[in-house]
Predict the structure.
Amino acid sequence: QHLNLKGPAILQQPCSPKTGTINLINLLNRGHATVITIYGYASLLLICSLMTEEAKLTIASKIFTK
């Protein structure tokens, strides 16, 4: 299966660990967690592959506790 990289602008831009993490957390905090599918989440991790493990765990915990 192919990852769908279209959709939220955050999926279409490269990001540093800091901005990627901040952008994603801001997105989640605005209540859009439900529109981030598992494919969207995988796409974000792929594009933001430089994120630290701590950042990924923080994001994952936010997604799965919504």
Observations:
- Residues 17-32 form the longest helix (16 residues).
- The radius of gyration is 11 Å.
